[in-house]
Amino acid sequence: MSTTxxxxxxxxxxxxLRALAQETRLDPAxxxxxxxxxxxxxxxxxxxxxxxxxxLSPDLAAREAAALADLGVGSVLLFGIPDGKDAQGTSAWDPxxxxxxxxxxxxxxxxxxxxxxxxxxxxxxxxxxxxxxxGGEVVNDxxxxxxxxxxVAYAEAGADVIAPSDMMxxxxxxxxxxxxxxxxxxxxxxxxxAKYASAFYGPFRDAAGSTPxxxxxxxxxxxxxxxxxxxxxxxxDVAEGADxxxxxxxxxxxxxxxxxxxxxxxxxxAYQVSGEFxxxxxxxxxxxxxxxxxxxxxxxxxxxxxxxxVITYFARDLAxxxxxxxxxxxxxxxx
Length: 335
Ligand code: PBG
Hints:
Elements: H1 15-21, E1 31-37, E2 44-46, E3 54-56, H2 58-70, E4 75-80, H3 98-109, E5 114-119, E6 133-134, E7 137-138, H4 140-157, E8 161-164, H5 171-181, E9 188-195, H6 202-208, H7 228-240, E10 244-248, H8 254-263, E11 268-272, H9 274-285, H10 291-305, E12 309-312, H11 315-330
Parallel strand pairs: 1-3, 1-4, 1-12, 4-5, 5-8, 8-9, 9-10, 10-11, 11-12
Antiparallel strand pairs: 2-3, 6-7
The chain binds ligand PBG.
Residues 118, 120, 122, 130, 165, 201, 204-205, 210, 273-274 line the site of ligand PBG.
């Protein structure tokens, strides 16, 4: 019988045909695994709202980094939990702080891994805001040199990538100039260009102890209803010298990833944030969804929307799943 309708099912019939027709792939080299680092040795403090994640001392962070590198994960993104906080966040640029210490250790134990350092003051200030305060407001221009000092400290410790997440205006240009002046012209800047004032950072703030004591971040992070503004932020950061840009959170902002992707020609990263990770775990714990499948589906959705790189707390699990699958393919296991 000849038919006139479209037989879309033909290309879905076997695993082989589906693989042939697949438009978007996940590659561990394009995954970035966030790690929380603290001081000490042999310290592993689990984070209750982020199953499987922990605050690690530099030695254990390096061990985790080496395991990620063995799985083919391309990068780690470091966040610091300092021993002390003050109004200026001075521990952010302490060369012996947890982030520089972890960078040095990771570079010894996993030299091929690309090491990213998040730059922000919120983990280091006693008030929990991402910049310095004056009259209850976060002041933009006075914050810039402090961010630059932190960026230089991490570059000097050996970070390959500096990722400013503070959302101060002009910070990319100021950080670029400071890195260049410090002899770190080759250090990459990935700016959190479109970072929204989101409810999905809750578990991260528990993990990093960075919840603002007063107020919120809406005067500097972006307003969730806006997408054109994200394009303006991305273009401004590229003009200031960002080598790559980021959209964050991920899944609730797929349209933003797409809009930004179409307007810039630098690589775009999407950050599947702590709340997205916690949400999937919580539902899976109740038996309401299948975690391995949901992890795959959400990460591939970020790639499909236009992200080149995906920053995800699932990096290790995802890379493990991808490796198992590749092994299955070479040994002829049907799936
Ligand atoms: C620091 C920073 C935050 C995140 C990344 N960098 C928290 C915030 O802005 O409050 C969130 C990451 C996550 O939720 O996984 N400014």
